[in-house]
Write the structure tokens for this entry.
Amino acid sequence: MEGHPVAPFSLRPAQFDDRSELEFLFQLYASTRVEELAQVPWTPEQKLSFLIMQFNAQHTHYQNHFGDGTFEVILQGERRIGRLYVHRTSKELNVIDIAILPEFRGQGIGGTLMRRLMDDAAAAGQIVQIHVEQNNPAQSLYRRLGFVPKPGTGEGIYHEMEWRAGNAASTPIRNGAQ
């Protein structure tokens, strides 16, 4: 929501040893799969079993491949509303995952977070990379922010997109959110 104030939010490290935190992260993950699972003729129990399996596989993959990344929970006040997982190298800032609860989507939080990451990357001389599912509506946000498809990618269910400081659209209008 360009031009509209974003409600204050903060980040803190995810607490994977906290059962309620893991439950929140699972529910958040499940919220990103609702439309996809609406297409399959499974029972609610089958869908839940699938989601648990996929969440655990994703979490294990992230920990095994990006163990030195930052895994943060997005908060509004004390309420958990999303997650932001990032892995940094000397040349890249890789957005492993960004997800926000449905009732908080479209309020400028994701755009504000992405702009902050872009600012950090520009200052460090890094590119920003993100993998986005082909059907994810957030692709339009990333394009507005100046992300472009990474050359030689685009096959499969994910699009790999990247942003480099100096892209024509790389300095979007700020909405003043902190």
In short: The helical segments are 19-31, 34-38, 44-65, 109-124, 139-144. The radius of gyration is 16 Å.
